[in-house]
Design goal:
The radius of gyration is 14 Å and the shape is globular. It is of the alpha/beta class and 158 residues long. 26% of the residues lie in helices and 32% in strands. The strands form three sheets. Strands 4-1-5-6-7-8 form a six-stranded mixed sheet, sandwiched between helices. It has a two-stranded antiparallel sheet with strand order 2-3. The longest helix has 14 residues. Strand 2 and strand 3 form a beta hairpin.
Length: 158
Amino acid sequence: MNIKIFTTGGTIDKIYFDAKSEFQVGDPHIQEVLEEANVVFSYQIESLLKKDSLEMTDADRQYILDSVKADSHQRILITHGTDTIVETAKKLLSVDKTVVLTGSMQPAKLRNSDAVFNIGYAIAAVQILPKGVYIAMNGKIFDPEITSKNVAKNRFES
């Protein structure tokens, strides 16, 4: 199976700058995660954006949609910031492929991050789910049309 992975930024790719005392979106970490997991399937990674999802615009979402539609792969994983992942997933609903979006509540570079688990879960999901658009977070598959992020509980809910 051959999977296309698009990265768009978000917390999953944030890094900490001591001098600035803040996190900023850095280079995608998914390549490192997959290499450490010693995966045996074929995949290609393409970085589309390096943005916090709160900074994403309608034009950014259209660019993601156009990229997914133009790509020849039928199974696509997108790493994305969690704050607006639902909006982007809804934008992709017209796509006739299996598309799974995932992210994390903590940067992948942190020791105690949900990023590795969410990436692994999303990789499994994109391989077995039928055509459609899904969000893979917190050990669950979500339908973007009936999903929201519960900021107070730091999780997604239907």
